[in-house]
Design goal:
13 strands; alpha/beta; seven-stranded parallel sheet; 41% helix; globular
């Protein structure tokens, strides 16, 4: 917490989503005032209850579709003195984006453009964008740095994030009053240690850890592991799994960095990962170890849109933001499992 951040009003889009809800908790712990925009198309209003129980603060959420410009603009009219925006709201399923590319381009890009129109009109000075390591595509050299060239995106979701970054870059160059940080994060997993908020897929999950926990608790009969013939140490895809609260804290620190006017360039790009590549099978084995549950899984063919291996060089984020990784792989699996068990107790 800094004096500069004390009770500054921050708009979080996608505030009831997985990363958005955890970031709101971290922002509140660091003395920010928070308002949210989320129309619950991919999330649940119950996240607001969890945030309130953790923080003892009630968050105002506007159920607005950011693809509707006038509705979005009304939020800014009703809220003076917004100091910054963290933009999470987006569709994010790789398989769905392969099947419905236009849906992803329309939602993810129209929402961003409408938001930036409001940034321009209402002179919002700080903007943090939720990007993704998927913008790198299949890389030739690991770990990935922010200077790694972007290759052909493997799905419409990744392409929408590449395009989103370019839109923000062009916008920031023209609008010098607004400084931006683009956060390319890797694979957020886990849940808040209270088990009051966590990852809650509305439909059958596509991400690995919810698939693991739902299989473990019996919601899914079995899970599939897509591909075991990759050129990796054990044949399985390798990812950089990072605890969602470490990701959340990086957003708070990015905002503080911007509010303290420490960014001279129009924008900065930062990787958010642990710096360690872990295979899908290693994640499964870690979960089985901490939970004592033997998972029912089957090896399937490779899945369209998946890259073979990717993990981060996170030195720039650590140095620029004074950000540190606090949670281990075991913490990630333990908190994800506690969250799934808590969900099972709900009526």
């Amino acid at each position: 917490m800094t004096e500069n951040s004390l009770k500054k009003k921050i708009l979080v889009t996608g505030g009831t989503g997985y990363i958005g809800s955890h970031t709101i908790v971290d922002l509140l712990e660091n003395q920010f005032e928070v308002i949210s925009i989320d129309n619950f198309s991919r999330s649940s209003p119950l996240a607001l209850d969890g945030i309130e129980k953790i923080s003892h603060q009630k968050i105002k959420n506007y159920s607005v579709d950011l693809c509707h410009y006038e509705d979005t603009r009304q939020v800014f009219i009703k809220n003076e003195n917004i100091a910054g925006i963290i933009h999470f709201a987006a569709f994010k399923s790789v398989p769905e984006s392969v099947q419905f590319p236009l849906r992803y381009y329309e939602n993810n890009l129209y929402s961003l453009i409408n938001l930036l129109k409001c940034v321009e009109e209402f002179q919002i000075e700080t903007f943090v964008f939720s990007s993704s390591c998927s913008v790198y595509g299949n890389v030739e050299q690991l770990p990935v740095t922010e200077d790694t060239p972007l290759s052909e995106p493997q799905c419409a979701y990744a392409a929408s994030k590449q395009m989103g970054e370019q839109i923000i870059k062009d916008f920031s160059k023209k609008n010098a009053f607004c400084k931006s940080i683009l956060l390319r994060y890797f694979n957020p997993v886990g849940a808040h240690h209270s088990a009051l908020i966590g990852e809650s897929p509305i439909e059958k999950p596509n991400n690995l850890v919810p698939l693991i926990t739902q299989t473990a608790i019996g919601l899914l009969e079995k899970m599939y592991v897509w591909g075991n013939d990759y050129n990796t140490r054990d044949g399985f895809c390798i990812r950089d799994y990072i605890h969602v609260m470490d990701i959340a804290n990086a957003h708070t620190k990015a905002l503080e960095h911007l509010l303290q006017h420490q960014v001279n360039a129009p924008y900065e790009i930062l990787n958010l990962g642990t710096g360690n590549g872990i295979s899908v099978m290693e994640i499964i084995q870690t979960f089985e170890k901490i939970s004592g549950v033997r998972l029912n899984y089957e090896i399937g063919p490779r899945r369209d849109g998946d890259v073979m291996a990717i993990y981060a060089n996170n030195e720039k984020a650590k140095q620029l933001l004074n950000w540190q990784i606090k949670y281990s792989t075991e913490d990630m699996m333990q908190t994800a499992w506690q969250w799934q068990q808590m969900l099972a107790k709900k009526p």
